[in-house]
Amino acid sequence: MCLSNVMEEKNKKKTLTISSNLTKKIDISSLKKDGKKSFSIGKKKPLKGPREFHKSNKSFASNSFPAKKKNFERKFIEQQATKAFIKKDDKAPSKSKLKLKAPIDKRDFKLTVSRALNVEEIEIKQRSLASVKRARLKEKRNSPETEEKKEFKKVVKEVTIPEQISIQELSNRMAEKSSDIIKFLFNMKVIATINHSIDKDTAEYIVKEFGHKAIIESEPNLGIEKKKETLKGDIKKRAPIVTVMGHVDHGKTSLLDALRNSDTVSGEHGGITQHIGAYQVKTENNQIITFIDTPGHAAFTEMRARGSKITDIVVLVVAADDGIKPQTVEAIKHAQAAKVPIIVAINKCDLPNKNLSKIKNEMMQFELIAEELSGDTLFVEVSAVKKTNLNKLKEAILLQSEILDLKASMSDKATGVVIESKIDKGKGPVSTILITNGLLKKGDHFICGNTWGKIRAMINHEGKVIEQALPSMPVEILGMNDSAFAGAEFLVTKDEEEAKKISEFRKDSSSKKNKIIANDKAALFDTNEKKNELNIIIKSDVQGSSEALKIAINKIKHDEVKSNIILSDIGMINETDVSLAKASDALLIGFNVKPNREAKKLAETQKIEIKYFNIIYEALEFIEKALSGLLEPDYKEKVLGSAQIQKVFKVSDAGKIAGSKVIDGEIKNKSKARLIRDGVVVYDGEIISIFREKNAVKEVKNGLECGIGLKDFIDFKEKDIIESYLSEKIERTI
């Protein structure tokens, strides 16, 4: 080989060949310093994906580029890989929609070279997760038991319903919205609030309409049976219960006294029966009749109604000289409503001005037709004073009782009705019971209204202590833990536990009812209008009188004033009553009762006036006057005269004086006055001075001139009219 060829070859080895794809120039001088003679760089292929990049990674690793260039290349590769990883179609979910169950690790989101190299694998995983989600959604849509298609299963509740219940309480028990119940009632044309109470029938209907089960709350079944239709035990004929009714002062009590050979009228205040009395009368053939005497006064309506309900026969007493009166008509209506046969006793037949035919004719309008007029009503002409035809009246009663065929059990548990109730100073709560069925014995446990007790003693109508009481017998019982209300049902229980349970149930029901009623009143009658109220406390000797007074007082009505009975009770007036009267500024009334020593002393100290009455209409008259005192008085205006202002004068001491001429009537000093200007009243006050020729005068007649001074007014103008008048106070009554 020649020398030239060898040199040429050496030069070739020193030559650096750079491909056209390499954009950057390489400094050969740096290579010479390192002692390297030659190297070659292959043609760079375009970057298609992470695999190609991985294959060429070795060549890049073998390069001996400076550190800055290596960092640039690495950054460039990571940018390309990130663009390939996050595609335009695969947008990252928003922060609001991103839900992560596991805690977030920031390192998991850092993109490294190794992760960038596995972009394809990650893409596959992402696509598979998305497809899984889509598959699950599709499965849910196709499933029949989706949340949209699931039917709501309502919870059916067992709702206990008492006698009265508020809408609020009913909604709570049903777990329903009170607004829905109110809407339901509104559709039934009933306007109500959440505090409004409804009866058990309405509540039951609402509960059923809302898809719940209604359970009517009833009194505990403790083995007590009310024997009205079926009688058990020793069944025998019983004495008839007769109620004597009629108008006041027609001789009911006098007739009863004549039958009993007693004198009850003399013991009644004002000759008026104030409470129900019960007695037994023996006939000539030793048959017994039970009589119940009722008051005839208008205030005792409830008593008469109660008497008609517990009776077998009504004896209607009509005075021969007076005829039919309002209470007579009322007694007839009560008896007919109770479907009780009526025997008409025409009293005072010994009087010369009697008119029997008139009474019999008037009775026909009430379907009470005498036998002689082809009717079936028994009419007996009697005289309580002369004691005539009393046997005929007894015979008529016994005849009517035979028709009725009255029977009762003589051995079963006793039932009855409270006729009257009172608190005795030495005996405590005492009630008069009329036995309707069964046998009542000493030591029996009983329930009577809301109270209970044990029979400690029984006293008959003659005042004798007895050990047992039979049907149709009125007895006074001792042993009650509290006073019972008149008309309450009396029932004998098995033992004390039963009596207590029923009593507690009735008390709870009563308190709930009262609370609801109070809420109803507050909701329905809560207005801005305020009435003057007269607070009243009533203490009476017996329950009937207290009840009658309360009802009669509540009937006294007026638009501007009203009575408010804060307490109506029986028994002696005590310290508590006086303290309550002081605290509530109430009128304290004692009806047939007096205060004890402590209460009397306290009343004197506190300056509380106690009013005592023993006749009911006197008590009512006093209350009417007290209510009338609360009425605002009326004022009647009387015009005295008028004067026209001619000229206005200035006076150093009096200010301005109106020089006037009296044009009508007279002007009086110290009278009321009004100043009229152009038909408009600009002042209403008082005349303080009248001068005539520099002299003070009391009055000025028509046609005369004078100077008039008005109180707190000086803005006089000519031709103004001063009118003098008086205002009279007129007291009003109910």
Question: What do these coordinates show?
Answer:
By secondary structure, the chain is of the alpha+beta class. The chain folds into seven domains: 1-43, no CATH class; 45-87 and 109-136, no CATH class; 158-216, Arc Repressor Mutant, subunit A (Orthogonal Bundle), CATH 1.10.10; 235-404, P-loop containing nucleotide triphosphate hydrolases (Rossmann fold, 3-Layer(aba) Sandwich), CATH 3.40.50; 415-509, Beta Barrel (Elongation Factor Tu (Ef-tu), domain 3); 527-629, Translation initiation factor IF- 2, domain 3 (Rossmann fold, 3-Layer(aba) Sandwich); 634-730, Translation factors (Elongation Factor Tu (Ef-tu), domain 3, Beta Barrel), CATH 2.40.30. Helix content is 32%, strand content 28%. The protein has a six-stranded mixed β-sheet, with helices on both faces. A six-stranded antiparallel barrel has the order 13-14-20-17-16-21. Helix 12 packs parallel to helix 13 (326-337), helix 17 runs parallel beside helix 20 and helix 18 (575-584) packs parallel to helix 19. The longest helix is centred in the last third of the chain and has 29 residues, at 496-524. The N and C termini lie far apart (158 Å). The model is unreliable at 12-66, 87-102, 146-150, 222-229, 265-274, 296-300 and 514-530 (pLDDT under 50).
